[in-house]
Amino acid sequence: MSATTTQSSGVTSVSYSFVLKWTPKAKALNELYKNSGATGVRSDLYQFKTAKDLRFYLEIDNDILDELSIYIKGSKMWSFELVYAFLVSKDRAFVLETSDRLSFLNLYSSTHVSDEEDVTIHCVVNACPARPASSAKEVDLPLMECQNTINFEGVEDITYPSNYTNEMVIDFIRKGDIPNFNIDQAIKIISETNEHKCETLRILCLEYLIKNITAQSIRKISKAAIDFGLPVLERKCLEQIANGCLQIR
């Protein structure tokens, strides 16, 4: 005797995750930081052609606490979440929208970056379909003079050495996942920079080590600073000793 069963399957929800890099002018950010009445700084308008009405941009503004805040503005047909956002300039990184794994970064301030410097903002945005009220009207997203529309359809071609196996680094490059650092891991990632070529992650590791200089860790961290040519980290170690904050054990 045989029995016939009917099998059904389907997709109940679709969501997207975007790893973005944006290069605003440091001067515009510093003016915004110093003047709450200044016009917000916007990214380009991102438009994902594969998904209906999926478009958004990022905007940095001066909030009521006179700190910079970053927001997502986009279609009402989609719900957006800013997972994190941090800014990189030269060999330093500063947070704009924090997450637990970026708690070692200092908040951005206009004293951190000169007007002439180049800055890059790295962030991850999640998008999932929303259920707006039937009476809700679609949001108009007019472009400012400085904005362009960036249309994209699929996954960018991301490359790294085929024999490279550090999953924390690969997940950061591919998905924007911030590693759950410890001191040994951060030093290891820095030591492998010539292999993975991810300068941004090297800088995050550097910031993590700066934040975790203690009496127990300073020998290991200062050795890494010398071995891998990290003058900022070496200087921070020396400052801690000179200021009497640490007694080397």
UniProtKB/TrEMBL annotation:
InterPro entries: SKP1/BTB/POZ_sf (IPR011333). This is BTB domain-containing protein. The lineage of its organism: Eukaryota, Metazoa, Ecdysozoa, Arthropoda, Chelicerata.
